[in-house]
Amino acid sequence: MIVRRKFSQTALFLFVFFVFVLASLCYAQGRGTDADPAARAIEPSKEPEEPSTEQKAKAGDRDAQNELGKLAQGTQNYAEAFKWYELAAKQGLSDAQVNLGILYDKGLGVKKDPLQAAKWYALAAALGDPAGEFDIGLCYLNGDGVAKNRELAVQWFTKSMKHEDKDDDKGESANGIGMAYEFGLHDDKEKNYAEAFRWYLKAAEIGFGEAQFNVCRLTAQGLVATAASSEGKKWCSQVANSGGKSSDWGQYGMGQIYKDGIGVPQDYKEAAKWYQKSAEQGNPPAQLELAQLYADGKGVKANLIEAYMWTAIAGSEKHTHAPDYLQQLTTRMTEHEIAEAQARVRKWIQEHPLDPEMNIDNIFYKPQ
Predict the structure, then answer these.
(1) Cβ contact 195:218 at 8 Å
(2) Cα–Cα distance measured from residue 90 to residue 101, given in angstroms and rounded to the nearest whole number
């Protein structure tokens, strides 16, 4: 009997202890007490994770698709950029339509197609996109993908000018109007350099680098009144020393001013200095001008290897006059000199990859 009672007391103690522990655990977990709702309320809730840009794009978000296109274009993966831009453009996003037009325009990630480029620019322009308005204006200016109509180009540039809001693009449309007057508003022979200069100057004063170069260029070409020479030199110098994306064009313009003696004494040595700076930044017209100075020994010591190198580099960067000049140079050189020049060309090109998006069509120096 004694043994059994001792066993019962022990069992009772264990039972009570077990119930106490179980109750404590339930209380701690917020179950079975009046405090349950409050306890649960202070527990942090998990926020759903924000979908990634790629997930949004795959789900059909046009802004995300356009963003992925820009990221791909930034790494020069143009086929991938084309894919995303097209998806967003077909959903009516004007920025994507402009971006898609640019790829068609330049033949990046897709076969070059001026008609398709003009189509997408026009769709963006119809939505009031200033870049689309400007780009379709360029199409009409040059007759790319549409019939050339510079009066219509000016109309689109004027619309774009009213809508410009990006700092980088301010002045772009006024510069476009200047081009229309320079190229000939109604006819290629009907050039109005004075009116072109007025619009270029307006855009230059807003801060548009290409227009600043155009003011410089018209002066360097002697296409405006002598009174404007100081204005041109001022803008050439400003652009040349700006360190911005158009600085190579300012340097090129300074080279032209000193080579031709526009408003300053003619100075080939000073011209060569400015051409060299511009050429090293990848400016094709400056490269060819520098090559000619080396070939003729003007402002620099004559050096046909240097002349060949800069001519070949200019050709690799789309200068249409470079191949003919290169052919002329080869008749004056030995095989050894040509081989050495070609080795230097390859080295330079490897160290300075060509920018496939570079466009020199609208700011190319065209002698009168």
Answers:
(1) no
(2) 12
Q: Which helix (H) or strand (E) holds 324?
A: helix 322-330
Distance between CA atoms of residues 261 and 293, nearest Å: 15
Contact 228, 194 (CB under 8 A): no
Alpha-carbon 64 to chain mean position: 20
Task: Find how far residue 352's CA is from the centre of its chain.
Answer: 17
Q: Which amino acid is at 337?
A: E
Separation CA 75–CA 71 (nearest Å): 7
Residue 263 — pLDDT band, cuts 50, 70, 90?
A: confident
| Alpha carbons within 13 A on the beta-carbon side of 292 | 16
What φ, ψ does residue 114 adopt, rounded to 5°? Answer: -60, -35
270, two tokens: 């000073």
Tell which residue, 246, 190, 184, has the closest CA to residue 214. Answer: 246
Q: Please give the model's pTM, rounded to 2 decimal places.
A: 0.69
Q: What is the pLDDT of residue 24?
A: 56
For residue 160, which of 184, 179, 146, 177 has the smallest C-alpha distance?
177
Q: Which amino acid is at 230?
A: S
Nearest-10 crossing angle of helices 172-183, 150-163: 170
**DSSP characters for 67-89?**
HHHHHHHHTT-HHHHHHHHHHHH
Q: Closest Cα to residue 204, out of 190, 218, 215?
A: 215
DSSP string, 172-238: HHHHHHHHHHHH-SSSTT---HHHHHHHHHHHHHHT-HHHHHHHHHHHHTT-S-GGGHHHHHHHHHH
* pLDDT at residue number 20: 57
Q: How far apart are the first and last CA of the chain?
A: 129
Is the per-residue pLDDT at 226 higher than 70? no
**pLDDT, tens digit, for every residue of 105-147?**
999 999 999 999 999 999 999 999 999 999 999 999 999 999 9
Structure confidence at residue 354 (pLDDT) = 72
